[in-house]
Amino acid sequence: MSGFNGMQVDTDELCIFRGQLSELSEKLMEQLRRTDAAMETVAKEWQDEQFHKYRDEFTEDKDLIQPLSDQINQFQELVLQALQKIADEYGNL
Q: How many CA atoms lie within 13 A of 32 on its CB side?
């Protein structure tokens, strides 16, 4: 555990957290791709107006998930990675 500016940072826990965020983003996007593909299959076979309405709403929601996944990745890669590097360097002093 490193401490600087009055802040305690467990670099191992930070590394684990970064991995969990990456995994969350990957799983989220993979599940979204699977669900989208399944919906496409059903939409071709099932000509139901209510389903098509649901599919359109899902598409709108899906368009919000990609930016969220990107934000998770950016936070993990830019902010947390930089914090981990600083904590590692401080811990090696």
A: 18
